[in-house]
Design goal:
Bound molecules: NADP nicotinamide-adenine-dinucleotide phosphate
Number of helices: 10
Structural class: alpha/beta
Strand order of the largest sheet: 2-1-3-5-6-4
Amino acid sequence: MSEASTGRERIVVLLGHPLGHSLSPLLHNASFRAQNLPFVYRPHPVPPEDLGSAIRKLKDAGFAGANVTVPHKRSILQYLDAVSDIVTAVGAANTLVWKPGPSGGELYGDNTDVGGFLATLQNSPWIEMPCVILGSGGAARAVAYGILTSTSAPFVTVAARNPDRVQSLVGSLSNYDGGGRLRALDIADAGPSIRDAGLIVNATPVGMHPRVDASPWPRPSDFHPGQLAYDLIYNPSETRFMREAQRAGAQTMSGLEMLIQQAALSYRQWTGTPMNIEAARTALNP
Ligand code: NAP
């Protein structure tokens, strides 16, 4: 949906390529409207080779900031003047804030996936339990960093299909490991870790629309009561991974709440105002 504009709003864009259907414009614009804030959020598809020139044009146009998604979360770092400690640790940014100034201004980068994920599990028992993360991409890295730095989970096992990528993820987070809590596994060998885990996070796109019949862990007998099967996918809101875990007695969570919480952390940086979470949630589930 293209948002009506008065031409006086500050613009926030979603930078990615290709940009399929995204829920972010819907939830940010719902909160801007509910709070009568002069901002508008728009999808802005930019192919990798045009990222630098797109950033220059957005600065010239006085944009407020951006969300960054695949494939730019890492390559955007070269255009940033300052970054949060989380971006340094995780090596990826999903939020840009443009602060114009007399000496050229500053483009600041943050990663709100970490805080968004942790916010969904605040005060829950799952974050103190052994954890298995499926996948070794940007989301897996953000979740692993969040759990290592903010919880006392005894083990964090990252299980993925590409041995080089999973080793590189674990190696790059070794500073936060806290004495052997973090380990890498081939996903084919993850059965015993999944059975022992309290928290199992799907950080792969397996099971996402339209390939909803797939599951990153198609062995439901490894799930049991006492576990939380957390799927970062939010479309569909219930995946095969979640359905099978639930049938085996586990609790489940979809990525929708993380989507809202990471958005709220970005929103506050652009506007200085806490997001109207209820307006955002209602826009997603009218
Ligand atoms: P990414 O960087 O592309 O990483 C995807 C990971 O999944 C890689 O490790 C990839 O392995 C693995 N993978 C892909 N297909 C697989 C398969 N068939 N079997 C096993 N592993 C497979 O993507 P990302 O940014 O981390 O995102 C991952 C998921 O999290 C997506 O569904 C995304 O929508 C979701 N997400 C949700 C939120 C939220 O707010 N809810 C935020 C961020 C991400 P290879 O490296 O071997 O290809």
